[in-house]
Design goal:
Radius of gyration: 23 Å
Number of helices: 22
CATH class of one domain: Mainly Alpha
Bound molecules: flavin-adenine dinucleotide
Shape: globular
Order of helices and strands: HEEHEHEHEHEHHHHHHHHHHHHHHHHH
CATH superfamily of one domain: DNA Cyclobutane Dipyrimidine Photolyase, subunit A, domain 3
Strand content: 5-15%
Helix content: 40-55%
CATH topology of one domain: DNA Cyclobutane Dipyrimidine Photolyase, subunit A, domain 3
CATH architecture of one domain: Orthogonal Bundle
Largest sheet: 6 strands, mixed
Distance between the termini: 50 Å
Structural class: alpha/beta
Strand order of the largest sheet: 1-6-5-2-3-4
Number of strands: 6
Length: about 475
């Protein structure tokens, strides 16, 4: 019988204190919220280990509601393509897979709770930001079965660091020696119990036969933010992207990533990491095997393993990473001290901001990339985020506008890396600089310096030529989290 290894157990965190009740239990309930892969997925492995222990089959469930913040056709399409390829891969592991897509003609109430009623135990994603975090906590409070959150996002589980490390240099130092252990850990546990063949009290959706355009067309979401051609959400497409990155991006990573015009200025793996079609571990293994020279690999792996996982760590130790209160006291204080200067600002209208039609051509080029491509190179994101710090009538409004634009348009948005990096633009894990107007001691962007960087001028010209689709414009930007202060 295959059991949970110590490495797998370290990924698991109990979200409530309910006891396992085996009487009448029909299965172990594996609720995948975001990690859309069947292989190297510790959430599924934890469910299989529990199934083997309690002699119960595993039911893997993925659902897509239409009420999540920023619900739009772009995000819906990417998720559903991922979910469509997840189904057969889960079944191939001998597990039952069911899925549900909410839409007006098919509204199910409390499905997670109904499915949990019949389970001995539930496992789900441990994600420190956005909807998956609140949902897991809320379900754990209300359901009668034990709920275990499993970290399937990081190579080294967040649970390894119970105390907050304030800087990446401390985090990197603590995390690096643990990497090999988790790279080697056994995955893909075999179920001992055969597939669950029972019935459910609703008709699961079969994404392999549903027309995704029609299905998405019927969902009550924002259809003005359209899917992008480049990013398709299937597992096969994610693996293709990884292969492309190893062959083309990694060999010149150091140099190309700071050149916005370079076709290889990033692996573009972030959407697949956010929605979990790829595991960090498989990326690391692939990079080590298939990409040379080692020097550029180091930089890439530092972004992937240190920075990305540091921001997961930071989000885990914060009450709500998307809230303004996520920012450090010193930066909020200095920004608020300079708030009066903001009254003189001519903030561009929200319509012009959203469509990249402001007076700042560099910023416009960046915003156009978010709207049209659902992705942007890292150095451009820095300028984009820092500019927003100084545009709004209050620092709170600036924070929520930056989060709103990033979360709504970028496929990798709504991530711990989103709030960590936008936070960096607002002074988080950053140092106070020379005091200036509006920004106080928060570092300000320089358009002149930006334009001197390799590739930026050409990149601005290229973006300026692009026609932006008109998207819906709200009256104002409202924070979606519960901690708005
Ligand atoms: C204002 C601003 C907003 C950002 N918003 C997001 C976001 O919403 N989601 C997101 O994943 N990243 C975000 N980043 C970080 C970074 O820009 C993106 O991760 C990167 O551009 C994604 O492209 P890539 O996959 O080609 O990255 P690569 O350069 O190929 O790097 C490989 C992977 O390493 C990780 N990574 C790289 N840079 C960083 C970083 N600075 N912080 C954390 N992880 C990193 C990502 O997972 C990335 O996919 C933001 C940065 C800034 C300055």
């Amino acid at each position: 019988m295959e059991k949970a290894s110590p490495e797998l157990r370290k990924r698991c965190r109990r979200l409530n204190k309910r006891r396992v009740k085996l009487k009448d239990a029909e299965y172990i309930f594996c609720w995948i919220q975001q990690n859309l892969r069947a292989n190297d997925n510790p959430i599924i492995d934890a469910a299989v280990a529990a199934g083997n222990k309690y002699r119960l089959p595993v039911v893997v469930y993925h659902a897509l509601g239409h009420g999540y913040p920023h619900a739009n056709a772009r995000i819906h399409r990417f998720i559903l393509e991922g979910s469509r390829s997840l189904a057969p891969a889960v079944e191939q592991r001998g597990l039952r897979f069911i899925s549900y897509v909410e839409r007006p003609e098919k509204m199910e109430k409390g499905l997670v709770y109904r499915l949990a009623e019949r389970a001995a135990l539930m496992v789900t994603d441990d994600i420190p930001a956005y909807v998956a975090r609140w949902q897991a906590e809320s379900v754990a409070n209300k359901t009668r079965c034990p709920v275990i959150a499993v970290d399937a996002n990081c190579l080294v589980p967040m649970n390894e660091f119970p105390k907050q490390l304030s800087r990446n240099k401390y985090f990197r130092r603590a995390q690096t020696p643990l990497r090999e252990k988790y790279l080697e850990a056994k995955t893909e546990l075999e179920p001992d119990v055969s597939r669950y063949e029972g019935e459910f009290d609703f008709e699961p959706d079969d994404l392999s036969i549903l027309d995704l355009d029609e299905l998405i067309g019927n969902c009550e979401i924002d259809h003005s933010v359209k899917p992008v051609e480049y990013f398709k959400g299937s597992r096969a497409r994610a693996l293709e992207q990884l292969k492309w990155a190893c062959e083309n991006v990694l060999p010149d990573y150091d140099r190309a990533r700071t050149n916005s015009s370079h076709p290889h200025n990033g692996s573009k793996l972030s959407p697949y990491l956010h929605f979990g079609q790829l595991s960090v571990r498989e990326i690391v293994r692939e990079v080590r095997q298939n990409s040379k020279p080692k020097q550029t690999n180091w930089k890439f792996l530092d972004e992937l393993l240190s920075w990305r996982e540091f921001f997961h760590h930071t989000a885990r130790h914060s009450a709500e990473p998307s809230a303004y209160s996520f920012l450090p006291d010193w930066s909020r204080k200095t920004l608020e001290e300079h708030a009066v200067e903001r009254s003189e600002l001519s903030t561009p209208p929200l319509n012009d901001i959203i469509h990249g039609e402001t007076y700042d051509e560099t910023w416009n080029a960046a915003q156009k990339q978010y709207v049209l491509d659902a992705w942007m190179p890292n150095n451009i994101r820095m300028y984009w985020g820092k500019t927003l710090v100084g545009w709004m009538k209050s620092p709170q409004e600036a924070w929520y506008t930056a989060c709103y634009l990033n979360d709504r348009f970028s496929l990798d948005g709504r991530d711990p890396a989103t709030y960590g990096n936008i936070g960096w633009c607002f002074g988080k894990i950053n140092y106070p600089r020379r005091e200036t107007k509006i920004y106080g001691t928060v570092g300000r962007p320089s358009d002149t310096a930006m334009k001197k960087r390799t590739g930026v001028k050409e990149w601005i010209i290229a973006q300026a030529k692009r026609e932006v689709d008109r998207v819906e414009v709200p009256d104002s930007v409202e924070p979606f989290n519960k901690l708005t202060s």
